[in-house]
Specification:
five-stranded antiparallel β-sheet; lyase; alpha+beta; 5 strands; Gyrase A, domain 2; 153 residues; 4-alpha-hydroxytetrahydrobiopterin dehydratase activity
Length: 153
């Protein structure tokens, strides 16, 4: 299901909304951007496709290294040569600077690893994106609350 153009970003607390809004413009569905806001407006998501599983895995490894450096992780799924990535912040909930910056890094890494770019018709949602979204949603529900410090017992 494609995100409505009426969906507005919902930023996490303490975010610089005006700066993030400017950065979002280059990422969201435009001539260059292929990211979409989640239905809630609290995240960015898109799929990346590569020629082979090996290229996809290389891309995911490079993204994971950036995650480690940023101490932030995506909700993601992978099937063969396609990786679905959703950036959102769980605590405090909403879009954060890290989400927007890591989405831009993903675009750059995808170019470096030879992303297969397919023309996306406006308002259309690819089947791989929907499948990736369902897989990421299921994993997120099963994974529990990853970003809230655990209470000592």
């Amino acid at each position: 299901m494609a995100t409505s153009s009426a969906t507005q970003p919902k930023f996490s607390a303490e975010s610089d909304e005006s700066a993030l809004t400017l950065k979002l413009q280059g990422l969201l569905a435009s001539a260059q951007g292929r990211w979409t806001l989640t239905n809630s407006g609290e995240g960015l998501e898109r799929s990346f496709k590569f020629k082979t599983f090996a290229k996809t895995w290389d891309f995911m490894t490079a993204v994971s290294l950036q995650c480690k450096l940023s101490n932030h992780h995506p909700e993601w799924s992978n099937v063969y040569n396609t990786t679905f990535i959703r950036w959102t912040t769980h605590n405090p909930k909403g879009l954060s600077t890290k989400d927007v910056e890591l989405a831009a890094i993903c675009d750059s890494l995808a170019r470096d690893f030879g992303e297969v770019v397919e023309e996306v018709k406006e308002g259309a949602d690819s089947g791989s994106c929907e499948m990736g979204r369902r897989l990421a949603d299921a994993a997120t529900r099963a994974g529990g609350d990853c970003c809230t410090p655990k209470k000592k017992q």
